[in-house]
Amino acid sequence: MAEVTAVSDSNFEQEVLKAEGPVLVDFWAPWCGPCKMIAPVVEKLAERFEGRLKVCKVNTDESPQTAGKLGIQGIPTLMVMKGGQEVERLVGFMPEPALVEKIEPHLG
Questions:
Q1: Domain with 26 in it: what CATH number?
Q2: Is residue 60 part of a domain?
Q3: What domain of life does the native source organism fall in (predicted)?
Q4: Catalytic annotation on 56?
Q5: Is a pLDDT exceeding 70 seen at residue 1?
Q6: Which of 4, 32, 38, 70 is labelled catalytic?
Q7: Which residue from 3, 51, 76, 81 has the least number of CB within 10 angstroms?
């Protein structure tokens, strides 16, 4: 099973911004219904792109600084980061095929 890394304000820079390859970051909160719906999809993406894409989750309730810095307005927000830069932002629930279509162009 591919790993989804829980990331917080304290390790976001290390885990995401300084990561070698592309990183998919799922900004979510425990009270958010659509976040719960997209969680299994995010886990599937981690498995599908294992070795090509690092997948992380940021609980916006526990890490409001990171969400604030990146201008996260609504959740779930999925962000693809590459070399410390945002290359794709997807807001709201999306089915797996739509996410794959948006993420694949950013993979090596």
A1: 3.40.30.10
A2: yes
A3: Bacteria
A4: no
A5: no
A6: 32
A7: 51
Structural domain of 86: 4-99
Measured distance CA(70)–CA(53) in Å, rounded? 20
Contact 25, 78 (CB under 8 A): yes
Q: Which two tokens stand for residue 15?
A: 């885990």
Whole-model pTM: value is 0.96
What is the number of domains present in the chain? Answer: 1
Domain presence at residue 107: no
Beta strands in the chain (DSSP E): 4-7, 23-28, 54-59, 77-82, 85-91
Q: Which of 35, 53, 78, 90 is catalytic?
A: 35
Q: Specify the pLDDT at position 32.
A: 97
What's the pLDDT tens digit per position in 13-65? 999 999 999 999 999 999 999 999 999 999 999 999 999 999 999 999 999 99
Is residue 32 annotated as a catalytic residue, yes or no? yes
Decide if 106 is inside a domain. Answer: no
